[in-house]
Specification:
Strand order of the largest sheet: 5-4-3-2-1-15
Oligomer: single chain
Strand content: 25-35%
Shape: globular
CATH architecture: 4-Layer Sandwich
Largest sheet: 6 strands, mixed
Helix content: 25-40%
CATH class: Alpha Beta
Radius of gyration: 18 Å
Number of helices: 8
Order of helices and strands: EHEHHEEEHEEHEEHHEEEEEEH
CATH superfamily: Carbon-nitrogen hydrolase
């Protein structure tokens, strides 16, 4: 480990109401949130899925999907460099004839470190996007980061794969949404999605940071509750139902964490030959 590498990064999740089909307005807000996270001392800030465009853009993808080094990515790289902060953000990207629901990770010098393409597509997304086919864990100066988007978090085997690949931290850019039926009949609420992040952290013994949107879009509401979660499932920071950032400082090597992992031997105790 070099002197520039941190094992105690401060990680922020940013939460805002994305304006559908208004890239300029969204980029302005994204820049503000990245500056706020940087001013708070964060080493990494995570923003939600399709944060530059809004989620319901299937009929506009020809116009709104950009390349991984297009104008929006260039702007975000500039925000990262100006704040000397890592930035992860969800965007629709185009590669040739294909469009992907992607998560871009930028370093504090503005370099794009990774482009992750969503592996698990939900419902109508299968008609909008091409599937990604790579589980991705990236070495950075703030540890090994496992990348994921929204629905990926529903699949315990997939997050387990990121942990097995050595992720210190799993990040998730999401846009968990709900309508009245889902909320009132089935309890699909902000607290439920926060519990999902807690469970993935607990069962894998890894840090998890999930960034969600907030507010209405096309008859649905983004559920918020962006959060940073410890390997025990303890919520260290949550944006709840507010716009803004929530942040926490992680410690990958603390004595307390080693003591917890000595008790919580969940991965070692698995018996996959029976499953």
């Amino acid at each position: 480990m070099t002197a520039s590498q941190s094992r105690t990064p401060r990680v922020a999740v940013a939460q805002f109401n994305c304006v559908a089909d208004d890239v300029a307005a969204n980029l302005e807000r994204i820049g503000e949130l990245i500056r706020a996270a940087s001013n708070d001392g964060a080493d990494l800030v995570i923003l939600h899925e399709t944060a530059t465009t809004g989620y319901f853009i299937a009929d506009k993808l020809d116009r709104l999907a950009e390349t991984e080094d297009g104008p929006s990515a260039t702007a975000i790289a500039g925000f990262a460099k100006a704040g000397a902060i890592h930035v992860a953000i969800g965007m629709a990207i185009r590669e040739g004839e294909k469009v992907y629901d992607a998560q871009l990770l930028f370093g504090p010098d503005g370099t794009r470190l990774a482009t992750y393409k969503k592996v698990h597509l939900f419902s109508a997304e299968r008609e909008w996007y091409a599937y990604g086919n790579e589980a991705m864990v990236i070495d950075t100066s703030i540890g090994r980061i496992g990348l994921s988007i929204c629905y990926d978090l529903m699949f315990p085997e997939y997050i387990r794969k990121l942990a097995d690949l050595g992720a210190d931290l799993v990040i998730n850019s999401t846009n968990w949404i709900s309508d009245h039926f889902q909320r009132e009949t089935w309890g699909w609420t902000g607290s439920a999605v926060e519990s999902l992040a807690r469970t993935r952290a607990l069962e894998n013994g890894v840090w998890v940071a999930m960034a969600n949107g907030i507010g209405p879009e096309q008859g649905f509401d983004s559920l918020g509750h962006s959060c940073v979660v410890a390997p025990s499932g303890k919520v260290l920071a949550s944006a709840a139902a507010a716009q803004g950032i929530a942040a926490a400082t992680l410690d990958y090597d603390s004595d307390d964490l080693a003591r917890w992992r000595a008790i919580a031997t969940y991965r070692a105790d698995r018996r996959p030959e029976l499953y």
